[in-house]
From TrEMBL:
Name listed for the protein in its UniProt record: Sialate O-acetylesterase
Signal peptide: 1-20
One GO process term, biological-process aspect: carbohydrate metabolic process
Location of the Sialate O-acetylesterase domain: 106-348
One Pfam family it belongs to: SASA
UniProtKB keywords: Hydrolase, Signal
Gene source species: Maribacter aquivivus
């Protein structure tokens, strides 16, 4: 290396340190929302061993901070009850940063594939009306820019904006409709982080640690074929888009995904459960995780959609999870149902009841399979969330029963005493029952509040 190059590099290093300033991750910006009544972590970078102060206006307190040798700093501050606007002022030797118009309320991370990413600009039902009336300044939106990474990153690209007709139309429609309902009921600010990428499989959102612990998921992932919209390389979206957010305090997660995992559908419950658990570990928070069940669609495989829906149903054994059923708002020929309003509303109702303790007398789930009883050549099928169980149409269809060899046959079904009684002339001693199991099966069984029964296969 010649002397001239050495001198240039030394000058570059000196200039870099001379200009080093307090720097914040992009998730901290004007108009952001912080989680209410929580220990919230503020963090970033500055000069190594630099001392500076942080002022938070909601409690009128100033705290001293010092970076480490790695030029990183972090400090925990307590947030107040919901409200705002507030300010945070970072004051150091080289610069001062003032974040303005900060609200304190509830923050939800909204992730998955295209049905979560789908915005009003992508076409939704009643689009013009919804956009024109999307003036909710106390709902704040942060869209995570699409990024992949081989290893977990520390920052994302994006900025917070207030919800308006201009900003809403580029944002996740499901997330917006969720927030609109929750904000109305709680009357507090809502922050939404849109962290979705169309056509993505669950593997790309799952940390590498999961695959090290579960090599069978690595094998199952090989069935997921590449597509033209997003990488299928496992963990890459988690590394680039989710890992940088794991220090940011959130209330919970909304998830709408599963269509991209029809190729390895049989493993979805294990994968999904492991992913949810790993996210909670990364955040060190057993937050609520609510997801939309995928809708019926004409996949290449006759039963792949039904397998995923059943695997999603089985994921409900994981604590603090909830599932919104969507089989009644599907378009068999279109994987993107236009009715995002009801998906967001159903997720919101689950959150309002299960997490916020409201809507105590309101049913927020569709009928879920519970058990069956053998009665001769009949099976009596029991459901939870089944008050007012009824069928839309003259006949109850889409039920099947299995024999001892595991073969499935169409079954006749009737309602009696809130049970569905099923039987088939071809099966004298039925051993199992399933419902709406084909990819395109649109169920007709509903409860009193009009929510559809989930696809299921008896265990």
């Amino acid at each position: 290396m010649n002397l001239r190059l050495i001198l240039f590099m030394l000058c570059l290093v000196v200039t870099t340190f001379a200009k080093a300033e307090i720097t914040l991750p992009k998730i901290f910006s004007n108009e952001m929302v912080l989680q209410r009544e929580s220990d919230v972590l503020l963090y970033g970078w500055a000069d190594p061993n630099e001392e500076f102060t942080i002022y938070t206006s909601w409690n009128d307190e100033t705290v001293a901070v010092k970076t480490g040798n790695d030029a990183k700093w972090e400090i925990t501050v307590k947030t107040s009850e919901a409200g705002g606007p507030f300010q945070i002022i970072f004051k150091g030797k080289s610069n001062e940063i003032t974040l303005k118009d900060i609200l304190i309320g509830e923050v939800w991370l909204c992730s998955g594939q295209s049905n979560m990413e789908w915005s009003a600009n992508s076409k939704i039902a009643n689009r013009d009306f919804e956009v024109e009336n999307a003036n909710y300044p106390n709902i704040r939106l942060f869209t995570v820019a699409k990024r992949t990474a081989e290893y977990p990153q520390e920052d994302v690209a994006g900025t917070w904006v207030s919800c308006s007709p201009e900003t809403m139309q580029d944002f996740s429609a499901v997330a917006y409709f969720f927030a609109r309902k929750v904000q109305k009921e709680l009357n507090i600010p809502i922050g939404l982080i849109d962290n979705a990428w169309g056509a993505s499989s669950a593997e790309v959102w799952t940390p590498e640690s999961v695959f090290k612990a579960h090599p069978e998921l690595v094998e199952a992932h090989k069935k997921v074929e590449p597509n033209q919209w997003v990488t299928v390389e496992k963990s890459t979206l988690f590394n680039g888009m989710t890992a940088p957010l794991t220090k940011f305090k959130i209330a919970g997660v909304l998830w709408y995904q599963g269509e991209a995992n029809t190729a390895n559908a049989e493993n979805y419950q294990e994968l999904f459960t492991s992913m949810i658990t790993s996210w909670r570990t990364e955040w060190n928070n057993d937050f609520p995780f609510y997801f939309a069940q995928i809708a019926p669609f004409k996949y290449d495989q006759e039963f792949a959609g039904g397998v995923v829906r059943n695997q999603q149903r089985r994921t409900l054994v994981l604590k603090n999870t909830g599932m919104a059923m969507t089989s009644d708002i599907c378009l068999i020929e279109d994987i993107h149902p236009l009715n995002k309003q009801d998906v967001g509303l159903r997720l919101a109702n689950i959150a309002l009841k299960d997490h916020y303790g409201l809507l105590k007398n309101k049913e927020v789930y569709g009928p879920l399979y519970e058990s069956f009883e053998v009665d001769g050549n009949q099976l009596k099928v029991n459901f939870s969330h089944s008050e007012g169980l009824h069928n839309k149409g003259k006949k109850i269809t889409l039920f099947e029963v299995s024999n001892a060899a595991g073969e499935w046959f169409s079954a006749k079904a009737k309602l009696k005493n809130q049970q569905v009684i099923v039987s088939s002339k071809e099966v004298k001693n039925p051993t199992g029952v399933r419902y709406a199991f084909k990819s395109t099966d649109i169920g007709t069984l509903f409860n009193a509040v009009g929510l559809p029964a989930s696809t299921f296969v008896s265990e």
